[in-house]
Amino acid sequence: xxxxxxxxxxxxxxxxxxxxxxxxxxxxxxREAAAHCRGCDLYKDATQxxxxxxxxxxxxxxxxxxxxxxxxxxxxxxxxPAGKLLSKALEEAGISRSDAYVTNAxxxxxxxWRGKRxxxxxxxxxxxxxxxxxxxxxxxxVRPRVVVALGATAAQALLGSSFRLTENRRHFVESPLAPRVxxxxxxxxxxxxxxDAARRREMAEFVEDLKTIAQAVAA
Length: 219
Known about the structure:
Strand order of the largest sheet: 1-3-2-6-7
Mean pLDDT: 92
CATH architecture: 3-Layer(aba) Sandwich
CATH topology: Uracil-DNA Glycosylase, subunit E
Number of strands: 7
Order of helices and strands: HHEEHHEEEHEHHEHH
Low-confidence stretches: 1-11
Structural class: alpha/beta
CATH class: Alpha Beta
Distance between the termini: 24 Å
Shape: globular
Number of helices: 9
């Protein structure tokens, strides 16, 4: 389901989330099983598994990279600064977050300590592959009309390591994942913009991406 690149990559793994998938197919069963996942070593330092949340019949499913510091502490996806920005952008684009499903390619927070702060660290490809069975199961259960990759890590998790976000942003891509798959930036990229003008520009472009998605969902 996730593409040849992912299936071949995961076949080489000694362990993965596939070892922990439950026999039940409900989101609740998946969430409860994911809480005990040891498919990679990221669980050792993370506070908890952060599984996806939202409507079980959402028309649009958003995939980010991984939970951040706030998500790791609270146990819910997209509740930190980037999540609040996502909610604002969705509202401007006419997409109700209550009608969407939000999750991440990796379910545990990967970080490094910098003084007393935990700083996000990009997950390795092998860690993304190890976690992919959870993401595939979520998509199979929700069956959204549109799957949205937020950022390059999520896009490559869904569409393969050769996918380039800068070349394919705002373009729908053929995929067995869902009727339509599309990639855009992660809202955290807006927060990292160098100044207010850049942030406003990035936000406006992000909202335009979401409006394209809203039109596809409504079609």
